[in-house]
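Hey team,

Filing this mostly as a record. A colleague (T.K.) asked me to run one chain through the structure pipeline before their review meeting, and I want the input and output archived in the tracker in case anyone asks later how it was produced. No errors, nothing strange. Just documentation.

Input sequence:
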Amino acid sequence: MSETFYQLALHLTPNLGSVLIRQLISHFGTAERVFAANLKTLTRVTGIGEVIAKNILSQKGLKEAENELIATKKAGVKLYFYTDANYPQRLKSLYDAPVLMYAKGTIDFNQGRFINIVGTRKATEYGRSITNEIVEQLANRGVTVVSGLAYGIDITAHRACLKHHVPTIGVMATGVDVIYPQAHHKTAEEMQANGGIVTEYRLGTGPDFMRFPARNRIIAGLSDATIVVEAADKGGALITAEYANNYNRDVFAVPGNLTNSYSAGCNKLIREHKAQIFMGIEDLLETLQWLPEHGNSQGQVIAMPAHFTQEESQIVSLIRQRGDVHIDDLVWESQIHPSRLSTLLLNLELQGYLRTLPGKRYALG
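Output structure:
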């Protein structure tokens, strides 16, 4: 069996969350070796008690993985395990990132710029208009728009992306084969031609209220920035903004009418300095340092040189997203060993792709 099979089996083992799976992989080196271990060896791993160890040894995950792997292949679903090269790099350094992602569509998680647009399910005409305007202005700028496929602002953003040919990704709280709400099934299908749909949940997983807040961390984690268009003083959009702030990502909020309850959340984010006021797309691009000189005349992302290794592409992409980055942040976000990272930075600087700034910071050359 392939390593993918054993990785999927860990994901399907009862009571094994992403954090524990990471610890097991770190301890044993591969998912396959986890299933070859005995009870005594398994319980030596931090967080793995006898109950969880017996769940692993029961091989329930192995039994279910075979059918799940067949089903995903039949449905055209791609699997992204956190040790894979094509796993989303923006998620990789986050402590609560999903260990496995299911996806359908034409998605490259590690190329270009990613912004999520979120808001209330009860969007007003003002909110829908602003959402359409933002997406239209993001066209031809190398940006992928992420949202949650929900009613209101989310579906407005996805449909605006289809209209303006902007890549878009829907992050789901169900299995990738269970579109919720069902009314958005056609849109989800159309998105797969230029973007797609993703989830951390196995095939056949239905909607459950508790899964939606967890889904919002993926929306925030996949993105370089969050834009909250409309939000009440409580709700999923504010949860996404909270995650984004915890991940040190930029958050923007569209100001609204003081008498409109669905602007109360945005106005609160701005008042409490948890979001920058969104006044227009140019302010956002300037804050993110996504200026034309970092791309072509339309602001599109420049392709990485063909000779770049995956690590070099990752480093340049991180610096391009941030404008300039401290070496400690590069270590954390890239998960590259400091000594290895220093060598890569020096080589990129000698080639003229990077330059060193005061205070151990790096910028594009």
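Quick notes for T.K.: The first strand starts at residue 78 and ends at 81. The chain is about 45% helix and 15% strand.
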